[in-house]
């Protein structure tokens, strides 16, 4: 059942939801959370598909806030109930002055006494703590991989981190982290160095490098490969490499020194699987918080050396300047003697 509401209000949408449930013969809600998705028209279809599929595992009220340009203030909505929809899906299109204050529209539509999760499939606000819709949510999900400069976006979000934030670049690493942790449990050797290989501009690879550096206390080399996505993680020991390599994005080779090489299923997961994983937890991800801090610390380490060079350049300039000053002071004396 799809109900289209043009030029509507929050109270009208709530009334139509109640009427639609009664018409469908299921007045009880049975939903566990509210998922707010903030996107534009280009991201609408994929976000709708992924959230509805994830709703089969987590029955929820999905509020798809589709932003659009325009000066005229308007609020249109579509209410989806029944059929292939496990919970309730409300598509809300805001324009003009209404879009400037979206929380006033969304707040009356939240499920009472239930957690709220917000997800930005594309562009996310720079300061999420001050965002109106972000303040309604317990957890805030972004995706740095969708940004024009993924690593820059990931570091910016790490600087503004507040408990409850996470990024799908981190969610994509769950099977990789599980395999690497299992490898170290099976072969507990001292790690001398680590190398992470992925295609250019892959934020997950930078997060994995930061996580390994924070846990193993060794320098991690980030290498560029042809992809797709993450292709390898190698931990060097005295006896050889503990390596996980995945050149095709489907099947990984798992190698430990002194043991035969094994094949492990490690396919690249789709958007539905990533969102479903994030909806399984409502508490802050402390491991992600520490990894984000390690990512920023790595940026400080790389920028420390140029500063030292600048300092040495300044010292050289001072010495050169002092020599020039001495030479100019001595010059008049020599001129006087010559006279």
The backbone outline, from C-alpha atoms, is elongated
Helix proportion of residues, in percent? 40-55%
The total count of strands amounts to 14
Let me know the average pLDDT: 85
Number of domains: 2
Low-confidence stretches: 302-317, 327-339
Provide the structure class: alpha/beta
Identify the strand order in the major beta sheet: 1-4-5-3-2-6-7-8
Characterize the main sheet. 8 strands, mixed
Care to give the gist of this entry?
This protein has 339 residues and is of the alpha/beta class. The chain has 10 helices and 14 strands. The strands form 2 sheets. It has an 8-stranded mixed β-sheet with strand order 1-4-5-3-2-6-7-8, sandwiched between helices.
What report would you give on this structure?
With 339 residues, the protein is α/β, with parallel strands linked by helices. A hairpin with a 6-residue loop joins β4 (74-81) and β5. Helix content is 41%, strand content 24%. The strands form 2 sheets. Strands 1-4-5-3-2-6-7-8 form an 8-stranded mixed sheet, with helices on both faces. A 6-stranded mixed sheet has the order 10-9-11-12-13-14, with helices on one face. The chain starts with a strand and ends with a helix. It is elongated, with a radius of gyration of 28 Å. It folds into 2 domains: 2-169; 174-273.
List keywords for this structure.
six-stranded mixed sheet; 14 strands; alpha/beta; 24% strand; 339 residues; eight-stranded mixed sheet
Give a topology summary.
Blueprint: E1 2-5, H1 10-24, E2 33-39, H2 41-55, E3 60-67, E4 74-81, E5 88-95, H3 97-100, H4 103-106, E6 116-119, E7 139-142, H5 150-159, E8 165-167, H6 168-171, H7 174-186, E9 193-198, H8 203-216, E10 220-224, E11 230-237, E12 240-245, E13 251-255, E14 262-265, H9 271-278, H10 286-338
Parallel strand pairs: 2-3, 2-6, 3-5, 6-7, 7-8, 9-10
Antiparallel strand pairs: 1-4, 4-5, 9-11, 11-12, 12-13, 13-14
Helix pairs in contact: 2-9, 8-10
């Amino acid at each position: 059942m799809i109900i289209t509401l043009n030029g509507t209000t929050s109270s009208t949408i709530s009334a139509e939801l109640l009427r639609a449930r009664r018409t469908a013969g299921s007045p009880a809600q049975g939903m566990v959370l509210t998922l707010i998705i903030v996107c534009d028209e280009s991201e609408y279809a994929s976000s709708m598909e992924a959230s509805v599929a994830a709703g089969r595992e987590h029955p929820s009220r999905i509020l798809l806030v589709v932003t659009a340009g325009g000066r005229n203030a308007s609020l249109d909505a579509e209410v989806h109930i029944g059929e292939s929809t496990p919970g309730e899906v409300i598509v809300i299109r805001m324009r003009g002055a209404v879009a400037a204050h979206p929380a006033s529209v969304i707040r009356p539509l939240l499920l009472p006494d239930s957690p709220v999760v917000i997800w930005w499939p594309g562009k996310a606000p720079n300061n999420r703590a001050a965002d109106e819709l972000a303040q309604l949510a317990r957890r805030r999900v972004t995706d740095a991989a969708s940004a024009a400069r993924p690593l820059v976006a990931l570091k910016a979000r790490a600087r503004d981190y507040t408990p409850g934030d996470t990024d799908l670049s981190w969610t994509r690493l769950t099977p990789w982290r599980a395999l690497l942790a299992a490898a170290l449990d099976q072969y507990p050797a001292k790690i001398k160095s680590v190398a992470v290989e992925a295609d250019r501009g892959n934020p997950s690879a930078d997060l994995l490098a930061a996580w390994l550096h924070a846990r193993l206390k060794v320098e991690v080399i980030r290498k560029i490969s042809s992809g797709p996505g993450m292709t390898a993680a190698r931990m060097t020991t005295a006896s050889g490499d503990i390596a996980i390599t995945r050149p095709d994005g489907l099947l990984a080779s798992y190698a430990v020194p002194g043991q035969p090489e094994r094949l492990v299923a490690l396919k690249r997961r789709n958007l539905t699987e990533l969102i479903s994983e994030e909806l399984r937890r409502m508490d802050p991800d402390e491991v992600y918080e520490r990894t984000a801090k390690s990512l920023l610390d790595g940026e400080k380490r790389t920028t420390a050396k140029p500063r030292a060079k600048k300092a040495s350049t300044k010292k050289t300039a001072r010495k050169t300047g002092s020599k020039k000053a001495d030479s100019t002071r001595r010059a008049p004396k020599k001129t006087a003697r010559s006279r």
